[in-house]
Sequence to fold (361 residues):
Amino acid sequence: MNNGDNKRGGLFEGKRILVTGGTGSLGKVLVRRLLTGECGRPESITIFSRDEAKQYDMRLVFNDLAAATEEVIYRDSDDILRFRIGDVRDYASISSALGKADVVFNAAALKQVPTCEFFPYEAVQTNVLGAENIVCSIEQLGLPVETVIGISTDKACKPVNVMGMSKAIQERVFISANLRCPGTRFLCARYGNVLASRGSVIPLFHAQIKAGGPVTITTNDMTRFLLSLNQAVDTILDAYHLGRVGETFIPRIASSLMTTVADCLINGRPVERIEVGIRPGEKIHEILVSEDEAYRTVARANYYVIKPILPELVADQGEPAALDGEYTSRTEIMSAEDTRRILRENHLTLEDEPDFSKLFG
Fold:
C-alpha cells in the first residue's frame, strides 16, 4: 500500500523505531506493516506501553506470525521486535526509551470520548503531558531523534470534548517543538474514526445484530469518515515520507451516514434500529480541516496537508491553498452501495464473520 508520490522503498532501513502505545489497534497494524519490510528493514522496533498483559499477548501473536509467514521478515522478528514497559506520563521512563530511537510514532493516548469527559485530567496527563515529556527529553538530553510523528484525531479540529481539546494541545506541543529542538522534525497525522478499531462502533453493531437487536444509533443524521487501519498507517508512513517540519497530514477519505452503515450490516435481517441520543462530548459530524485552517492547507499526493501555524516554520514553497472551507464528513456522503462495498473490502460484514481481536487488535 502506498498513497505517496514516491515509493517508500528503504525509508526505515537500519532505523531504530519507537512506537508509544504500540499495543493498541493502530500500533499493532503499524508494527505488522513495518515488519513486512515494505519500507526497508529497521534495526529495531520497540513497543513502549504500560500494559504488560497486552504486550504479552502481542508477543505471542507476532511469534505465531513468525512461524507461519515466509515472505516477510517476521521469521527473525525476535531480533527486531522489542517490548518495553513504560508510560509517556513518566519523564524518566520515556526519556530512557527515547535514548535509542531514530523515529518515534506517538500513538499513546486516552481516546475514548466519554471516558475523557468523566476523567479530564487523566486525558491531559497522557495526551498533553506525555507529548511534552517526549519533547523535553529530546531538548534537555540532546537526544539525536530524527523524527517524531504525533498521532492525532479529527476531534482535535474545532474541539468540543476533552479528548479533542487535549489532542489539539498535543498537536501544538509537537508543532512548536520544532523551534525548541531544531535537530528533530516534528509533525502530525490527523484522521477520523478507524473502522472496527478497539472501542469503535462496528464491533458494537455486530454484537447487537447477533443478539437480535436493537441496533443503537446516537442520532440519525450522524456522519463519519470510513477509514481502515491500513489507510491510517499509510497516512502515518506518508507523513514521515513526504512531510516537512510542523505539518499535519490529513487523508482524503470517504464518509457515510451511520444509519447507512448500520443498515448495510443489518442487511435485511429482522433487527430494529433505534435512536438513543448523543453521548457526552460527541460530534454529529467529523471535521478534519476547519475553515480557519483551510487557507493554509495544500494538496500533496492523496492528502491535505496543513501548514504550521507558526510563521517561523513556514517556508514559501508556492503551494496553492487546496480548500476554500472546512473539510467535513457531511460534505460528500457515500451511497449505501458504496458504503457496503467499503465494508466488504475491509471484511467487516457479518457474513465475513470477522474476529476483531485478530484483525485489529
In short: The domain at 16-192+227-252+287-327 is CATH 3.40.50.720 (Rossmann fold). Residues 120-141 form the longest helix (22 residues).
